[in-house]
Write a sequence for this structure.
């Protein structure tokens, strides 16, 4: 009897030990299906035409941090995890893949990266319901003044055209839609919306096929190359004023100097208008020759 009790005690204590051993790593929990899923067999990645490499600057791909959140799809039938593996193969080694139930540590990781890497570029990619997840992350970072260099919505059927979907801390937004999810009524109700401050693209494909399509990967690489080849000094922190481009002058005013306000300094000489730029005077009433005309003593 004692042996049975001891065996039950040991076997009951083993799960506690296992949980305590992984509790310290819970913030970096790896999904059950990370690199292989049903999507590798059902919807393999279509190899895109790779864009030309940058020749004017050194691409900072080592400083690009990509955080991808899958939809309500634990088996990865859409092959979104394959998309993340493809980005790693293109030199974006700091690519993290997460499910809806394992991505809770992404926000803390981004804050840690911002403190350690001053050249960091932050990229958030969401697929299906994961688009709502990355939108929430972007808005949470906005309240802390952290910029998101690229925000990507893939098949965000329930992403509406609102300020929350286009946070002002997102430098670039890519919004790729397709036919609506069949379980939500197809194209009748939820099929995504075009966003005012985003690059909007709509593919003639089913919802589940978006991560593996050639057109999706091509557009994604174009956006990633745009931020990885951009010099760091071009990044503007939140709250800093930006220099607006000079406005074009009408025809005939190209060589005319800008008007200067008169100086109020006593030492400055008075401004005399030149003959080249005559100034019109307002009409004045005629003066009376009789002194003190119209006055009473």
């Amino acid at each position: 009897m004692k042996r049975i009790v001891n065996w039950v005690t040991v076997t009951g204590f083993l799960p506690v030990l296992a949980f305590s051993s992984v509790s310290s790593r819970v913030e970096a929990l790896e999904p059950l299906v990370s690199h292989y899923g049903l999507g590798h067999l059902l919807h393999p990645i279509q190899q895109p035409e790779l864009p030309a490499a940058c020749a004017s600057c050194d691409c900072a791909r080592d400083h690009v941090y990509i955080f991808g959140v899958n939809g309500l799809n634990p088996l990865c039938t859409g092959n979104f995890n394959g998309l993340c593996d493809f980005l790693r193969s293109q030199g974006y080694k700091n690519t993290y893949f997460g499910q809806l139930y394992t991505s809770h540590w992404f926000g803390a990781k981004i804050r840690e990266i911002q403190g350690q890497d001053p050249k960091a570029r932050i990229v958030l990619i969401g697929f299906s319901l994961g688009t709502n997840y990355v939108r929430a992350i972007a808005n949470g970072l906005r309240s802390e003044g952290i910029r998101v260099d690229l925000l990507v919505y893939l098949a965000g059927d329930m992403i509406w055209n609102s300020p929350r979907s286009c946070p002002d801390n997102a430098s670039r937004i890519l919004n790729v839609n397709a036919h609506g999810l069949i379980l939500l009524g197809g194209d009748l109700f939820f099929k995504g919306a075009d966003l005012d401050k985003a690059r909007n693209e709509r593919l003639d494909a089913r919802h589940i096929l978006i991560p593996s399509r050639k057109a999706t990967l091509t557009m994604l690489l174009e956006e990633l190359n745009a931020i990885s080849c951009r010099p760091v000094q071009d990044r503007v922190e939140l709250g800093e004023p930006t220099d607006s481009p000079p406005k074009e002058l009408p025809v005939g005013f190209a060589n005319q100097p800008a008007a200067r306000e008169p100086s109020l300094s006593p030492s400055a000489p008075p401004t005399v208008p030149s003959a080249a730029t005559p100034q019109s005077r307002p009409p004045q009433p005629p003066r009376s020759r009789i002194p003190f005309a119209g006055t009473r003593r």
